[in-house]
Amino acid sequence: MQKKKSSIPDEFIQAIQVELENQPAGISEYDLIQNLKSLGYFDFLSSPALPHELFRVHFFLFHALYLLRDIFLNNKDYLLDINTLKIQLTPYSEGESNIQKEDKLRTYYLDFTHLDKTSEDDVYDMLASFWNKVNKFDNREDALAELGLKDPVDDKTIKKEYRRLAMQHHPDRGGDSDKLQKINDALALLLD
Predict the structure, then answer these.
(1) What are the φ/ψ torsions at residue 49 (nearest 5 degrees)?
(2) 175 pLDDT band (50/70/90 cuts)?
């Protein structure tokens, strides 16, 4: 399969570079997204943002970060440490730049076909898988009750109700983060 070429505008990559240069101690992915959003990027996000929208933002950002890291290495400008909790520029060092190993995340994010082939349902499945690891529900009946549902019910109905409740209880809309967490936990158990 051939990789799909990047369609990230140069202005976006330059805006990221400026943000990183202004944060010498590093910046979290969340804060970087907020800063870029205040500059007019990611205007497709609803409020609160839906999971599949956030996945698109995350993918675009990490795609641009890996492009930028390659540019910095080629120009011997900086080293760029990419992590969701801390994205940081450090001074270029010849010795460190030569220690390159296969980077599966770089390969993933630089291939736009991964974004194109990830559906909304795939994103919800990834979320469910993640939340299942921290699952607080012991059985299906309790998880359904948290969403106000009873068996028999299909996955489509579960996802629809989850979306409705997540929007209703999202803290950005005046909701309760603990309630939203319980809704996420219920979805994780139900879609595992």
Answers:
(1) -70, 140
(2) confident
Using alpha carbons, list the distances in angstroms from residue 66 to 88, 99, 127.
Answer: 12, 16, 24
pLDDT greater at residue 165 or residue 100: 165
Cβ atoms 63, 8 nearer than 8 A? yes
Range 175-181, long-range pairs (CB < 8 A, 24+ positions)? none
pLDDT at residue 179 in the model: 87
Domain boundaries, the chain: 10-116, 120-190
3-state DSSP call for residue 79?
strand
- Burial (CB < 10 A; 0-12, 13-18, 19+), residue 143, is buried
Amino acid 185 reads D
CA quadruple 32, 89, 111, 36: dihedral, nearest 10: 20
Architecture of domain 120-190: Orthogonal Bundle (1.10)
